[in-house]
Structures are given as C-alpha cells and as structure tokens.
C-alpha cells in the first residue's frame, strides 16, 4: 500500500546517490592507478601506492596518534559525560536549566574558533604539552555526543527500575553499573562510535594544536597533499574508508543502522 | 548525600571541562579583539573597512547560503524517496548516505581534487567526448568549493530529513486524504509544515557547518577563494596576527549564534507546537 | 442526504497474504453497523478498503449509486475518525475542524463559521484556539469527531475511536457518538474489538474472524442466539458441550455427552439441529441443583458474584461453569446436578471436524 512516487523524483534520488558514492569509488580506482598523476579509470593496476603508504612512517605514526586521541578523548569524555547526562536526566529539578545548554556549547562554537582559542590559551598561554592540548580539544568536541546521545536514551529510562534495585538491597553505585548502564547500552555505543569517528576525522581543532613531532593523520594528509599530489593519498583514504566500514559493521551488528536517522 | 549535592557532584567534571577549556579560551579570544589601544571596536572597524576582509566574509556567506539551499532541495527530494522505499533497499540507501558522512572531510575533499583537477577525471572525460580540447583548471574557484561543500552536507540533510519524514504518522496523511485533500494539498498543508522543524535544524547545521569549514576551502579554494576558516588560520599561523585572527573568530561566533537564534525563532513562528 | 453502503464480494490481500475473502456487507441508510472481532480479523482492513487506503483485489464498493472501488481516497467524501485521532499537530482545533472544508474550497469566513458551530456542538468552544498537544484524550476525540462531521459526509467511519480513552469516558463518548450519528441520520461503519461498545451503539453488528463475517445481526440476536460456535464463544457462552442425539421419545430428545452421561431435552423448549450438536450456555444457563435431570457433577471452587454464586464444576464432559442461587449455597466437594435453562442455552450444529 505504498503510495506511488513520481518517476522523476526517483531518477533524481538515483542521481543523488551516484553523486554521493561516485567520488568514493573514484578514490578507490585512483588508489590502484599505475600512473603517477591521478586518473580514472586507471590505465593499469598496481599496489605500489599502498606499499608507499605503509612505507611513509609519518602516516603510520600519525595514524597511531589519531587512534590514541580518538580512544583517549572519547573515553575521557564518556567518563565525565555519562555522569553528567545521568544527573540531568535523573535530577531534573535539582539542576538549573541552563546546564543543558552548557553541553551544547561545543557544537555551537565553531570548531575552528575552539581550535584557535585552545592553541592561544593552552599551548601558548600555559605551555601545555601538545598531546595534552590535543586530548582536551578532542574530548571537548566529542562531549556533546557523549552527553546528548547517552542522555537521549536516559530520558526514556524508567528510573523506578533503579529504585527497585535499591529497594532489593543493591547499593546505589552498584545499581548504576548493573541496572542502569546495561539498559542504556545502545545509547552509549552509539555515542561512542559517533564520538570516535568525529575525533578520528577532526581537522579544525587539530590543525591548531598539532606541533613539532606530533600530528594527526588528517593533518598529515593535508600537509602531504600540499607537497605531493600522487595516489598515495588515495590509498591512505581507502584504508581510512576501511576503518569506516569496520565501524559501520559494528554499528549494524549492535544497533542497526536506522538509529542514525533519529 | 542530598539529591542536589549528588546531582552537582555528577555534573561538575563535564561542566568544568566545558567552562574552563571552552568558555575561558573563547572568552579570552573575544577579549583580545577589544584590547586595541585605538578603542574597543577598532579591530572590527579595521575588518569592515578592509575591502579584502569583507570580501572574504561575504564570499563565505554566499558559499554557505548556496550550499544550504542546494543541500535542502537535494536532501529533501532524496529523503522523500528514501522514506517511501520499502525494507532492505531503504537500509541500503541509508548506508549509502551514512558512509560518506562517516568518511573524513579530508578524504571527501580530496576526492573532488581528483575529479576537478587539471589532469582530473572530469577534464579527461570532457576531452574524451570532445567537448573541450585542452584541459582547464576547475579548482580554486567558488564553484569547486560549493560542489565539494554540497557533497559534504547532502548526506547529513538526507539523514535528518528521513528521520523527520518517517516521524510523520501515516495516519495524518490518511486523515488529510479522507478529508478531501489531494496528495499535493496534503503535502503542502500537512507534510511540509510538519517537516519544518527538521528542515530548519538541517539548514542550521549545513549553514553553520559550511560557514565555519576549514579543510574544504583550504583544499579546493586555496588562496584565491579565501574563506573565513582559511582566513582565520592564515592570520593565526602564517601571519601570526592574533588580534586579526581573534576578530575573524569572534565574527564567526556571532554569525553562528545569530543564525541559530534567528532560525529557531523562525521555526517557532512557522510551527508553534514543535519542541 | 443519507445513502447506503454496499460492500460486494470484496477480496483483499496484503502482499500475497489474503486478509479478506469474498466479504459482502450492506449498511442501510442511516444505519450504524459495527465490525467486531479480535485483531487480525479483517475489520480494520475492511474500513481501510472503504476509505480508499487499500485497493481490493476483487469485488466492488458502492456508496449510494457511486462506485468507490477505484476512486482515490480524497474523492470519496467519507468522514473518518481514527484510533489515534490523527489530529494535525501544527493546526489549532478550529483549523483541524476546518481542514476538510478548506479542501472543498469553502470560503475562509464560511468555514470558520461552520467549524465554530461544530466545535460548539461537541462542547469545545472554549478550546478552539488550542493545539492538539494541549488537549486531553477525550477532547482530542471530540475534535476528531467534529472534524469528521463538519464535512457532512454521507458516510461516517470509526476505527476503534474509543480505545485510547479511560473506561468512564468511553461510555460517555459512545453515547455522544450515537447521538450525533442519529441526529444527522448519517450511515455509519464502526470498527471495534470491544463487544460491549459494539452492542451498545449499533443497529447491527458483524462479528468477524479470519477475514469473514461469522454473523451479522442485531446485538440482541447475537447475544442470545449466536449462529455458530465461534460467535457463541465470542459473546460469552463459556460452556460448550458436544452432544449426540441417541434416542427420541414423544416430547423429548435424549442426548449423550462425552463421558457417557445423558440428558433429556424437552422438544417444546429445545430444537435439536442435527444428530451431532453443541450445547452452548453461559454459566447462568446451567442451574446448580441438588438433584434432577441434569449433568452430574462434583462442585469445586465457589465464588460470589453478587447476584449468584458461581461454581467450577467437575463433570464427565469436562470442567464447566455454573451458577447457583444465593439462597442455597453448596459446599465445595458436594455432588449436584447442572440443569440447562432452555431460554439461556443454544443448540448449535457441530462444527465439521
């Protein structure tokens, strides 16, 4: 009983999806091209650029930095974000209204402004080590995911379940871990993944905070592109897409992808 | 422990992180702009008196606005089709929209370098079909930035609007039909007004996102198509003029906040019951 | 303007699943007919077919002399009240009610007048400028009703309109619905799973099961004279005893039940329909007595119902429920007989195995 959709509209949607997927396919094609400038379709196939990508130590080093930041920043953000989300959902009356807005600030303030301001205040102002500044910056930009995505599932959580656990003799802190967290697992996984991806791909904050010897992969890619324009970038991009595919597979397994439209 | 204390104890670490490491630094950036000996607004006067700087601002606005309008139009039409697609095919389409969204902005901008470059695929293709004889550079134009931005933001728009359209109960469109509304009337009078909040949220995300973007204008616009993001970076890290950089930053914050405020007012006016 | 609705030999599918089979139903002018059944019986499908949200795979739907079968939903001119009310959340009460008039090209002035009149009639004039989100369930229900009535449709349809209301409001609202329907003399089709609701407001009720109408009759007939075992069970004939006629004497038929007990059924009060039949009764149709010509039983648990005692009874034919007088309570474990009361029993033809 689906209403019919106009064929022109369907054709338009098909074109949109070609527009969305096409460029990514082009990158994949380019990464196997055996010409040194990027063409598509590739004339001959080679794995040379992948070999190159693995041989350039800066890529490996910065990828590890990015990974550390994404895991560390997200973990830090979750550790302080989940309690905050819990407090706001559970103690609505006790906390002032504006507190919710505080956690929107990292979305509201443009990332590039945050990056610049952090550079000025932390890296230059109080001479914080590069890695620490980066960690703080990444924790900040992913905090909204931790607070709001987890908060969304907490808002539909029935806190009388927690009280039931306490009335059955379970200490409050234990009820938090054994009753509450398992019930908002989906929100936590969703928040973690969105946060992780955001951190991994971040440019605007990192570009200001990276410094001598410490860089992240996206920044390294930008720097590389300014000097060389060869398919090595394409092969690194394809490898990064691999990471994305892996993450999406995890999402699909645990939550189903439809949660992303909510 | 009384509930109020417990609540604050739980919320304090995250609140402190935001206030200390976002609030203070951003405020200090603002403070920098008022410290000019020639008067508190001298830096802003300098900005708006400079032909070059205002051009950057208007160009950024123009790019963001075009990106937003095209993304809304393309996103809405596509989301409409996706929302009506049954079962497995729909999941596939959602994946096709999510995947680019999860792929980094550097990778996605890079793809357009490959397509639009002098030795790029589009030039190859145009020569091959005989439309042109010599490759020409399509990069570092306003057009190249806009295309890449649209590419960046259309998936976001699609996903936002699919959620919105799916949230409109079938019963409502059925009710409209039973009351005599033709499909076009039901669309105008029921579906569209109910989608307004989503359209506005999506537009704000796209506008502020493209207005403050850095990587895409850097890669596809270069020096010739300087935008606010790249201009801020250049002032800060190339010319080391932190006052000028802070001024650009402050203007970006003001424009972003104003957009959010105006659009949420507008949303409220158009659909008084939403949120 | 009142017209009749004819559903003629309609078959419908969801995908490849057949959900309605050769269904026919005629609703006379000004009549209110309910479709009653549990979920999945096809009642809502029938309504959606008439509304035009579904297309039948065979058959015809006529409203008066208009053939609706292939007409798009928006051209059918039917007032429909949804289970969810389906009020437009972005429109005020008045604009919700005026929506249908707007589609008919009625001028702003006139449609406001007519909408206000209708809002008045359902008693919501103080709330005309509110949004649905700020109304109670009962108020929303009234808006939905007003919205369907204001277009003065020749046919009104209700899809479980009261299922989201609390019990007290349900009773008030169904009286209101019946009053408005009768005042306008509008033909109406009413879908519900609630037997009391259907019986209380309908001229006739169709009890449905698995895409077919099992019996279509006035509520009084359905209640006391179900035509088959399904309907009997549905309207509360809790005891269903399969029986077999074994002998016939002058004024009675002797019948045997599982377990070997026999019962004599006087011909002047019982009409045996076939050799194999079912004796269907409600608990009050079996009288518990110390002795007599009845079903021998050992009484089990006794519960107090206010007007009688009810007993769980062990009999050769299985466990039955029977009522006994308040004046003569029996102890659990005592032996008694259950005497069928002719006016509260039904003899139904046995279902083909």
UniProtKB/TrEMBL annotation, chain A:
GO terms for biological process, alphabetical? transmembrane transport
Please give, as recorded in its UniProt entry, the membrane topology of this protein. Multi-pass membrane protein
CDD domains xrefs: TM_PBP2
Q: Give the principal location in a single coarse category.
A: membrane
What range(s) does the ABC transmembrane type-1 domain occupy? Answer: 63-251
Q: Where are the transmembrane segments?
A: 7-32, 63-86, 98-118, 130-154, 175-197, 233-251
Subcellular localization is given as: Cell inner membrane; Cell membrane
Signal peptide coordinates:
none
Q: Which GO terms describe its cellular component?
A: plasma membrane
Which PROSITE patterns does this one have?
A: ABC_TM1
Q: Which UniProt keywords apply?
A: Cell inner membrane, Cell membrane, Membrane, Transmembrane, Transmembrane helix, Transport
Pfam hit, one: BPD_transp_1
What the record says about family reads: Belongs to the binding-protein-dependent transport system permease family.
The protein's name is: ABC transporter permease subunit
Automatic annotation (TrEMBL), chain B:
On the tree of life, the source organism's domain of life is Bacteria
Q: Where in the cell is it found?
A: Cell membrane
Membrane topology note: Multi-pass membrane protein
Any one GO BP annotation for this protein:
transmembrane transport
CDD domains per UniProt? TM_PBP2
Please classify the protein's predominant subcellular localization into one broad category.
membrane
- Residues crossing the lipid bilayer are 63-83, 92-115, 145-169, 190-211, 242-262
Which keywords belong to this entry?
Cell membrane, Membrane, Transmembrane, Transmembrane helix, Transport
Matching entries from InterPro entries are given as: MetI-like (IPR000515), MetI-like_sf (IPR035906)
Please name the PROSITE patterns in this protein's record: ABC_TM1
Query: Among the entry's GO cellular component annotations, what is one?
Result: plasma membrane
Where does the ABC transmembrane type-1 domain lie? Answer: 57-263
Check the record and name the PANTHER family matching this protein.
Answer: INNER MEMBRANE ABC TRANSPORTER PERMEASE PROTEIN YDCU-RELATED, INNER MEMBRANE ABC TRANSPORTER PERMEASE PROTEIN YDCU-RELATED-RELATED
Q: Which family does it belong to?
A: Belongs to the binding-protein-dependent transport system permease family. CysTW subfamily.
Under which name does UniProt file this protein?
Answer: ABC transporter permease subunit
Please give the organism: Pseudooceanicola spongiae
From TrEMBL, chain C:
Question: One of this protein's GO BP terms?
Answer: quaternary ammonium group transport
The protein's UniProt keywords, in alphabetical order, are: ATP-binding, Nucleotide-binding, Transport
Q: Please state the span of the N-terminal signal peptide per the UniProt entry.
A: none
Q: Which residues form the ABC transporter domain?
A: 5-235
Matching entries from Pfam families are given as: ABC_tran, TOBE_2
User: What would be one Gene Ontology cellular-component term for the protein?
Assistant: ATP-binding cassette (ABC) transporter complex
Molecular function in Gene Ontology: ATP binding; ATP hydrolysis activity; transmembrane transporter activity
Q: Which named protein is this?
A: ATP-binding cassette domain-containing protein
Organism, scientific name: Pseudooceanicola spongiae
Q: What is the lineage of its organism?
A: Bacteria, Pseudomonadati, Pseudomonadota, Alphaproteobacteria, Rhodobacterales
């Amino acid at each position: 009983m689906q209403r019919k959709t106009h064929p022109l509209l369907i054709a338009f949607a098909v074109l949109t999806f070609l527009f969305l997927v096409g460029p990514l396919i082009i990158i994949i094609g380019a990464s196997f091209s055996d010409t040194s400038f990027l063409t598509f379709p590739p004339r001959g196939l080679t794995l040379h650029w992948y070999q190159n990508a693995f041989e350039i130590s800066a890529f490996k080093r910065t990828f590890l930095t990015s990974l550390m930041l994404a895991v560390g920043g997200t973990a830090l953000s979750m550790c302080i974000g989940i309690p905050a989300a819990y407090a706001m959902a559970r103690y609505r009356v006790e906390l002032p209204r504006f507190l919710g807005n505080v956690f929107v600030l990292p979305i509201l303030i443009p990332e590039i402004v945050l990056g610049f301001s952090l550079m000025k205040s932390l890296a230059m102002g109080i001479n914080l080590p590069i890695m620490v500044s980066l960690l703080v910056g990444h924790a900040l930009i992913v905090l909204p995911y931790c607070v709001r995505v987890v908060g969304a599932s907490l808002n539909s959580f029935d806190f009388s379940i927690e009280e039931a656990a306490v009335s059955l003799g379970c200490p409050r802190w234990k009820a938090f871990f054994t009753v509450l967290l398992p019930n908002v697992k989906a929100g936590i996984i969703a928040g973690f993944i969105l946060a992780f991806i955001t951190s991994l791909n971040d440019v605007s904050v990192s570009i200001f905070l990276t410094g001598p010897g410490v860089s992240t992969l996206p920044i390294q890619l930008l720097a590389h592109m300014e000097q060389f324009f060869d398919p090595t970038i394409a092969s690194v991009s394809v490898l990064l897409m691999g990471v994305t595919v892996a993450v999406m597979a995890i999402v699909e397994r645990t939550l189903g992808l439809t949660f992303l439209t909510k | 422990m009384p509930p109020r204390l417990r609540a604050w104890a739980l919320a304090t670490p995250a609140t402190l992180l935001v206030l200390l490491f976002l609030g203070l630094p951003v405020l200090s950036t603002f403070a920098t702009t008022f410290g000019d000996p020639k008067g508190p607004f001298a830096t802003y006067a300098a900005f708006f008196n400079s032909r070059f700087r205002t051009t950057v601002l208007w160009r950024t606005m123009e790019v963001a606005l075009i990106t937003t309008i095209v993304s809304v139009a393309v996103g809405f039409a596509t989301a409409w089709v996706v929302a009506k697609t049954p079962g497995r095919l729909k999941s596939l389409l959602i994946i096709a929209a999510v995947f680019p969204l999860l792929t980094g902005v550097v990778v996605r901008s890079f793809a357009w370098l490959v397509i639009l470059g002098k030795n790029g695929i589009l030039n190859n293709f145009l020569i091959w079909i005989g439309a042109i004889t010599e490759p020409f550079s399509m990069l570092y134009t306003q057009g190249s930035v806009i295309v890449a931005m649209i590419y960046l933001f259309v998936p976001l728009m699609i996903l936002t609007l699919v959620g919105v359209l799916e949230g409109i109960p079938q019963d409502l469109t059925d009710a409209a039909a039973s009351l005599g509304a033709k499909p076009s009337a039901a669309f105008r009078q029921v579906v569209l007004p109910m989608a307004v909040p989503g359209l506005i949220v999506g537009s704000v995300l796209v506008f502020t996102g493209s207005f403050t973007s850095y990587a895409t204008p850097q890669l596809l616009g270069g020096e010739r198509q300087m935008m606010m993001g790249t201009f801020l970076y250049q002032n800060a890290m190339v010319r080391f003029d932190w006052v000028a950089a802070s001024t650009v930053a402050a203007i970006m914050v003001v424009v972003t906040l104003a957009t959010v405020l105006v659009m949420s007012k507008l949303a409220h006016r158009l659909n008084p019951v939403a949120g | 303007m009142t017209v009749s609705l004819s559903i003629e030999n309609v078959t419908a599918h969801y995908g490849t699943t057949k959900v309605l089979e050769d269904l026919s139903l005629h609703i006379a002018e000004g009549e209110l007919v309910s479709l009653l059944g549990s979920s999945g019986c096809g009642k809502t499908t029938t309504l959606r077919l008439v509304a035009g949200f579904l297309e039948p795979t065979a058959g015809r739907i006529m409203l008066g002399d208009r053939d609706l079968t292939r007409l798009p939903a928006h051209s059918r001119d039917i007032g429909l009240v949804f289970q969810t009310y389906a009020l437009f959340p972005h429109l005020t009460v008045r604009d919700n009610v005026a929506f249908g008039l707007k589609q008919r090209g009625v001028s702003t002035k006139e449609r406001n007048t007519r909408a206000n009149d209708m809002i008045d009639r359902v008693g919501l004039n103080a709330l005309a400028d509110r949004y649905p989100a700020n109304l109670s369930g009962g108020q929303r229900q009234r808006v939905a009703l007003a919205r369907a009535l204001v277009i003065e449709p020749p046919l009104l349809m209700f899809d479980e309109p009261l299922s989201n209301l609390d019990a007290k409001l349900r009773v008030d609202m169904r009286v209101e619905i019946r009053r408005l329907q009768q005042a306008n003399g509008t033909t109406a089709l009413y879908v519900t799973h609630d037997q009391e609701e259907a019986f209380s407001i309908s001229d006739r009720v169709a009890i449905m099961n698995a895409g077919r109408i099992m019996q279509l009759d006035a509520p009084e007939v359905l209640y006391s004279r179900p035509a088959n075992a399904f309907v009997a069970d549905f309207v509360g004939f809790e005891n269903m005893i399969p029986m077999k006629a074994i002998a016939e004497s002058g004024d009675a038929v002797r019948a045997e039940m599982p377990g070997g007990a026999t019962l004599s059924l006087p011909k002047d009060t019982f009409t045996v329909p076939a050799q194999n039949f079912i004796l269907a009764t409600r608990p009050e149709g079996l009288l518990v007595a110390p002795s007599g010509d009845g079903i021998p039983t050992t009484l089990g648990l006794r519960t107090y119902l206010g007007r009688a005692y009810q007993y769980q009874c062990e009999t050769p034919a299985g466990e039955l429920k029977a009522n006994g007088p308040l004046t003569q309570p029996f102890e659990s474990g005592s032996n008694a007989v259950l005497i069928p009361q002719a006016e509260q029993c039904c003899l139904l033809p046995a279902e083909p195995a």
